[in-house]
Amino acid sequence: VFNALQLGFLEMDLLKNSRIPNRYKSSEFDAPALENHLRCYDDFLPFAEMSLDLLILPHRLEFSERPHQTLREAERVMMPEGHLLISGFNPISTWGMVAGLSK
Question: What b-and-e string marks burial along 83-102, b requiring 16 or more CB atoms within 10 Å of the CB?
Fold first, then answer.
């Protein structure tokens, strides 16, 4: 059985077209209208070791209080041949400069 998790940015369903049967979305906040939604923090994931085949982290490292711990958790829960997708702001874009100045 294959498992996929999108961690954050719930406004976009990034797993919508995935062929993986078990697709979950997670955030730190309640979102009762979403199907397969988990509420958890990105630096302590409630998954067993090597249990996810796909993990998507859209802009999580910019907004995480502990980005290194988030990456350690991602490594812990990923299957050996799994896929980790990380997206972030371009640091020289307008958004990137705003995000950099706010820290």
Answer: eeeeeebeeeeeeeeebeee
Question: CA 75 → CA 40, 43, 49, 61, distances in Å?
Answer: 17, 11, 9, 14
Tokens of 31: 């979102």
Where do we find the tokens 């020289």? 92
Whether the Cβ atoms of residue 94 and residue 67 lie closer than 8 Å to each other:
no
Residue 79 CB burial class (10 angstroms; 0-12, 13-18, ≥19): middle
Distance CA 84, CA 72 (A): 12
CB 57, CB 8: distance < 8 Å:
yes
- Tell if the pTM clears 0.85, that is, is over it: no
* pLDDT tens sequence for the chain (103 residues): 899 999 988 888 999 999 999 999 998 876 666 665 788 888 899 999 999 999 999 988 888 889 999 999 999 999 999 999 999 877 777 766 676 666 5
